[in-house]
Amino acid sequence: MKKCEFCHLSEADRKFLLYENEFWSVYLADKQDYIGRCIVVSREHKESLSELSSSQWMALKDIVDALEALLKNELGAAMLNWSCLMNDAYKTTPPQPHVHFHVRPRYAAPIRIDDTCYHDAEFAHHYNNRCADQMHAAAKRRLFELLKHNVTAYFK
Amino acid sequence: MKKCEFCHLSEADRKFLLYENEFWSVYLADKQDYIGRCIVVSREHKESLSELSSSQWMALKDIVDALEALLKNELGAAMLNWSCLMNDAYKTTPPQPHVHFHVRPRYAAPIRIDDTCYHDAEFAHHYNNRCADQMHAAAKRRLFELLKHNVTAYFK
Question: Tens digit of pLDDT for each residue in A116-146?
Fold first, then answer.
């Protein structure tokens, strides 16, 4: 049986860990198709939103609040797209879904990081799930350091 | 200034209201691209998830639990895709986002309602945002009645 991917993250998988508390881990996503895209992962293996405990659910609200403020204030995101899908887990049998959220910041105006300008070409429209990664490795590392440097001002 | 659509729903818009409490309304969606697709709408005008109060957030968990159970047990959904996007609100100036969730049940096996069989062609893959409506008006009415009939067994 294939192991649950999120229960067995390697150190390399965790290289962009922005914040972690008892219940949730927040990562900057490897794929930066939307600048500042993050993944919020339940630390415990829960298979659907309805399996989350009250404590996990309340702790999630603190994550939502902090992450929205971080990405709006530090990157200039106009708003965020939140989704909890877990479709990929159903490609294997038995499926092992593990609760996580995709968080895509969306930008009304171009965003500049160092010398590069990024555009959200589909702003005000559904995200493009096949959008290409917009950042090279060094830019991702720079973005991670920028967010990580500011994270304590937002997360409790 | 254009009115917030969700703050001014007509009786026709509310025809598929499945459940409502102090904080949230649950509708069967007009567009049944995924069978049993629902929309969960905040009754108060809140512009982002971080604006929700603790009471609203806790009440949302009850809705999540009830709706997952309803759609899995009554329709045979294998899992649900949850998303809170609100992109359309940014097509107008000033934007007036109003917190709501799209809930798409996903099916590993065909689902039969009355004499019609429906297939989730992209199961285990991201939903297709341009998927056509699968149900004609009478079938939607029948589906609504089926869910409405069972709703009190799931929602507190």
Answer: 999 999 999 999 999 999 999 999 999 999 9
User: Measured between beta carbons, which residues in chain B are less than 8 angstroms from residue A108?
Assistant: 90
Residues pairing with B69 in the sheet = none
Distances (CA, A) of A109 to A31, A53, B18, B85, B130: 21, 38, 39, 18, 26
Q: Is the entire prediction scored with pTM above 0.80?
A: yes
How far apart CA A103 and CA A81 sit, in angstroms, is 6
Q: How far apart are CA A67 and CA B121, in angstroms?
A: 34
Best residue of A49, A101, A155 to probe chain B, by most B CBs closer than 10 Å: A49
Residue range B10-31, pLDDT digits in tens: 999 999 999 999 999 999 999 9
Q: Quote the CA–CA distance of B103 and B100 in Å, as a whole number.
A: 10
- CA nearest to A128 within chain B: B129
Q: Are strands B116-118 and A116-118 parallel, antiparallel or unpaired?
A: unpaired
CB–CB of A87 and B108 under 8 A?
no
